[in-house]
Design brief:
single chain; about 700 residues; alpha+beta; eleven-stranded antiparallel sheet; 10 helices; globular
């Protein structure tokens, strides 16, 4: 699509400090509040975004940045519509609109309510709001009233169905962020090429994998758009992204596929949804989404200092660990500069009962308390692995409390295949009470300072049909999962205000609605160093630019040794090495002398720089189109840059500098690289795999 270089037309003039609305033809002033006739076209907009509605209530999205007008679509499109049994209904003859100023959780703004009627007799109202505080976003909810005189079966509704054309030639034309969870643990950030299609259903996409962050974002070199819902509980929507062969661009949208019959006079209203325009990659949309949801009440948690400390985990010994093996490794972990010791899976007799394995803990609770004491005596903090909401067949918990099970519509337990177990219903009071008591035992009685909560089933759950739970509707289990996590988190914080609650939803795309109830995220079994880096960028956007994102065990990175992918982006580092160096060669995680030198070097760098406590500058570089891949962190007046490529020889840009001179150092190797001048500098470099740079102001 051609980018038109023109001055902003008068409809981009501000009304108050931020907002603009105009009605075409002409460029009229904002109408007074009240009902107005609809003629030709209505444009609703703010600093960077204009939604143009035509007389059929089709819409076109137009962006405005730096004096450029950039139409994202080539023409108006059926963007909000319903699907009936005989097909979609998307043409609504515009009749009127009304306007009013608003002041709600998102601040001051303006609201348009636009009304139209279909040939079938359905009445559509599009409620569009824009706010001073969100100059690149618009918020919609759409209602459909049945004025046909007969019952109408609505199969699904669709909002924000846009087809985004490419604005400049490149390969690929588009990159995307897609927030759904799949069993193949695919990348969250992907190029989009012809033939691509992903549904992004926010429910269960297999028995163990579901939910996610309800946002999809697609961008070109010039412009990007994100869409999502801003409801305070999870909803079983889809956010499809597709690029059909022969199409001129990528199609995105939000769909809710839940059939409903409307009797005459009844109304269906969609969830509150939003669109966000941006330049650069998806980081801006996700950070904006975080601010929106915080204003609505879902705020990021507090991050205690110890959530940034590096981690040793006993998972190198796997489930068949012995307590002696753990104890003999602690001094080496401390010597290496690590601060946490995690007792992983294998301490329990089963998922669900959570009894101590008496072969490992012969004196039960006393033996476990002694282990925690010895971890602390070694100068480390103790964290314990746990997989709540899972219960194994044949356990005492099922025998005594079968009512806690989550049941499908046929009345059967739902499998968690990874653990060979069943789901417990998180919305059931007895499940919550039982889990809270376990936290009180693990942290209050045994003395653990943190929890490593693990399993892909933690991210989302299926609807529950257990009649003993008296759910208002089966989706209560989905919507109240976040309340389960809130109870776990608040219990842990009640016991110890500095406690760490890490949720590791193995390989899934994190469910945003759970995030306020965890104070450490993790790359969660990454399949590559690329996943460590783009998951880090994503979670810094969603949980805060200085949030403690853990890069997971370095043994899961490329070559089982890529500390640079965590250190460079400002991620917490960790390892699961076994010790002494000849222990368990069959597991492959021995800390050999060579590994020890390398690991110690990286952990020392991490502890010295402590980049997670800096500010991740996610909007400076486009993770898709900028080459080499670049990440930046600002800390203590310095700028830190991390470049990644299989091989690179040429110039790189150092963005985000203040005016003035900077001394540039390769801080991995303590090697000077010269002096540059801000605010944007170029530097000729030559590296393989990575280059980590510190830019230090020259007084």
């Amino acid at each position: 699509m051609k980018v038109i270089e023109v001055p902003k037309p008068s409809f981009f003039s501000r009304l108050t400090a931020i907002l603009l609305f105009s009605v075409l033809p002409g460029c009229q002033a904002l109408p007074e509040s009240g009902v107005h006739s609809f003629t030709d076209e209505l444009k609703v907009g703010n600093d960077h975004l204009v939604l143009s509605f035509d007389t059929k209530l089709h819409s076109q999205v137009i962006a405005s940045y730096s004096g450029r007008t950039i139409p994202l679509q080539e023409e108006h499109r059926k963007s909000e519509y319903i699907v009936l049994e005989n097909g979609p209904v998307g043409d609504f003859q515009a009749e009127s609109y009304r306007t009013q100023t608003i002041n709600d959780d998102l601040g001051k703004g303006l609201q348009y309510i636009i009304t139209g009627r279909s040939a079938e007799g359905m009445v559509k109202q599009v409620d569009v709001r824009v706010y001073d505080s969100y100059p690149s976003s618009a918020f919609l909810s759409v209602s459909y009233r049945n004025d046909t005189g007969n019952p109408v079966r609505i199969l699904k509704w669709v909002n924000h169905n846009y087809q985004i054309a490419s604005t400049s030639p490149s390969s690929p034309d588009f990159w995307s962020f897609q927030g759904a969870s799949y069993a193949d643990r695919r990348d969250w950030v992907q190029p989009v090429t012809p033939g691509f299609e992903q549904k992004n259903y926010m429910g269960m996409n297999s028995s163990d994998y579901g939910s996610g962050t309800p946002v999809s974002d697609v961008w070109t070199r010039d412009i990007g758009i994100g869409v999502g819902h801003v409801e305070l509980t999870p909803k079983l929507v889809s956010l499809p992204v597709s690029y059909a062969r022969g199409d001129s661009g990528v199609t995105i949208g939000i769909e809710y596929d839940r059939p409903e019959t409307l009797n005459p006079g009844e109304t269906l209203t969609t969830f509150e949804t939003f669109l966000n325009l941006h330049q650069g990659d998806y980081f801006a949309t996700l950070a904006n989404y975080r601010h929106i949801m915080s204003a609505k009440g879902l705020e990021a948690p507090e991050y205690p200092d110890n959530s940034y400390e590096p981690i040793w985990c006993a998972w190198g010994y796997e489930r068949d660990f012995t307590v002696e093996e753990v104890l003999q490794t602690l001094p080496k972990a401390k010597e290496m500069g690590l601060k946490w010791a995690v007792l992983d899976d294998g301490w329990q007799t089963s998922e669900g009962d959570w009894y101590l394995d008496r072969d490992k803990f012969p004196h039960g609770d006393e033996s476990m308390r002694q282990l925690v004491d010895k971890i602390e005596e070694a100068g480390l903090k103790a964290k314990l692995w746990w997989a709540p909401l899972a219960v194994d067949p044949g356990t005492d918990l099922i025998r005594d409390h079968e009512d806690m099970l989550l049941l499908d519509k046929d009345g059967n337990p739902v499998d968690i295949t990874w653990w060979d177990s069943y789901y417990l219903c998180p919305a059931y009071a007895k499940t919550q009470e039982y889990s809270e008591e376990l936290v009180r035992k693990m942290m209050g009685q045994w003395g653990y300072a943190g929890l490593k909560i693990d399993g892909q089933h933690l991210n989302g759950v299926p609807p529950c049909y257990n009649p003993k739970h008296n759910h208002k509707h089966p989706e209560e289990s989905v919507e109240q999962l976040q309340e389960f996590w809130k109870r776990i988190y608040e219990t842990a914080r009640e016991i110890d205000r500095e406690s760490i609650v890490e949720i590791c939803p193995c390989g899934t795309s994190y469910a945003f609605h759970n995030m306020p109830y965890m104070n450490q995220s993790v790359s969660s079994d990454p399949l590559s160093s690329w996943q460590i880096r783009h998951k880090g960028k994503t979670l810094k956007a969603l949980m805060g630019e200085s949030s403690p994102y853990y890069g997971d065990h370095v043994e899961l990175s490329d070559d089982a040794s890529d500390f640079a992918s965590s250190v460079g982006i400002g991620a917490v580092v960790g390892t699961k090495f076994t010790w002494p160096s000849d222990s368990h060669p069959e597991k492959g995680f021995q800390l050999t002398p060579e590994k020890e030198r390398s690991f110690r070097h990286w952990i020392d760098i991490y502890n010295e720089k402590m980049l997670p406590k800096g500010v991740y500058m996610g909007e400076l570089y486009d993770i898709g189109f900028d080459k080499p891949e670049t990440h930046a962190v600002s800390k203590d007046g310095k700028m830190y840059y991390a470049f990644y490529a299989d091989g690179w020889e040429g110039s790189v840009e150092l963005r985000g500098l203040a005016a003035g001179q900077y001394r540039v150092v390769d801080y991995e190797n303590d090697r000077p690289l010269g002096t540059v001048a801000g605010p944007t500098a170029t530097l000729k470099v030559d590296f393989n795999k990575h280059l980590l740079i510190e830019a230090i102001p020259v007084d």
